[in-house]
Design brief:
alpha/beta, 24 strands, 19% strand, binds uridine 5'-triphosphate
Amino acid sequence: MLLPSAPDVRELLARAGQPEVLRFWEQLTAEERRLLEAAVKQLEPGPLRAHCQEAATARHREQQAAPNTHRHMQPLPGEVTGSSARAEPQSLRGWRERGFHEISESRVAVLLLAGGQGTRLGVPYPKGMYDVGLPSGKTLYQIQAERIRKVQQLAEERLGKKCVVPWYIMTSEFTLEPTQKFFAQHNYFGLVKSNVVMFEQQMLPAVDFNGRIILEQKGKIAMAPDGNGGLYRALTNNRILEDMDRRGICFVHVYCVDNILVKMADPVFIGFCVEKGADCGAKVVEKAYPTEPVGVVCLVDGIYQVVEYSEVSQETVEQRNPDGRLTFNAGNICNHFFTVDFLKSVTEEFEPQLKRHIAVKKIPYVDEQGNAVRPEVPNGIKMEKFVFDVFQFSKKFVVFEVLREDEFSPLKNADSAGSKDTPSTARRALLWQHYRWALQAGAHFLDSNNMRIPHLTRHQEAEEPPAVCEISALVSCEGEGLEEYLKDREFRSPLLLTEEALTALGQCQ
Ligand code: UTP
């Protein structure tokens, strides 16, 4: 038996200017009606109307306007920047010491942004569950969990104090449940369950180019997470900053799920930011080439921000310093340091001022006859906030440049989509790094004829390393501690260096 139409839901949608959401109401089952009603009741008519109108007008404005190129971009002043490659060894040591000190005092947390839908990668599960094809078969989540365990262990060994680096994981409706199940199935990858805090970001309806809410099914609104800048609202909604306060956390290292080389709670970066007295910091990599489509961190009219590649004139993109380096070369990798106090100021005061960006996407929908359609071309808009749009509110902002080959290789696209940021490039980036660590530690690799494979240290993302070597994060975080086991020894490729393998090596010395 069909239920009568829901007058309060009808009224809510009328007030939001979206009555057509119920256009298939008569055809829905009782359960479908219940679910649609529940979804609509989550929305508030005023903000919903504003959201839909804003999406359509922003898209219109963007189409009409000439590309917005920033004329007042200024490079980052030297005093706010640091570099892992150019710093004096003594400075690096000092930052590392400071970082480990803060970690050992349990004042540092890591926060993973994992609410994205990963549409370009195109798998039906969260990106963190992806296995890029390493010899160990480890997923991104497992690699990250083990890096947390290792950094805790290193801090404890150095400072003789037990410590915890809590892991906050922002998920969305798409990723929460599978992520929870995955962690439970894998026993939290050896972490203490109560130190892994998952929370959900908000979802917003996707709209078509006329500002009409898109129906994904006859009784289901197409919803999308509100961008990684949805973090700030999610922190409030889920009382995450209170949880951090309870644990005594002062500093938070925020990062994206898809960077296979990410250093968790990187002591050098944390130490650098803390020593500089920063409330907000960004890790960057040097742009690979002038026209690389990444955002750059810079000043615009005296305000720190990330400027998208598309907003910069060709002349500015090509501009170089006397030393030959690009003037605007601080490529943003979405890897940030925040003090908890800064996060409080954003959530309590500035969050409503964050810009909403429009993302034009292919959104599955039902046509007027109710047929499901998978569009070939973009047909709708998702509105997103960006995590880095808060730099403008910082009182003391700093930037730390790191080497791309050591710290950045994102997984964005399927292998079938080309050669950039794919499972293959991510896997190779990690294997090249571990191969370099093994060579630095004095290892030699043998081929199947027991002949030594000539060393090759030049990193070539397009090619496999000459020998396959994967080193568990539980063995080494950044190549440390390997020499005593690997020096002057020969190994057959592939080498999988686990904790057990290391123990065995130690015994036969
Ligand atoms: P991307 O912008 O690469 O988006 O996210 P995505 O969802 O992973 O992939 P596409 O664009 O659909 O192919 C960068 C980081 O921000 C997180 C992602 O999980 C990733 O770690 N993110 C993105 C969120 O946490 N929430 C969002 O709403 C969007």
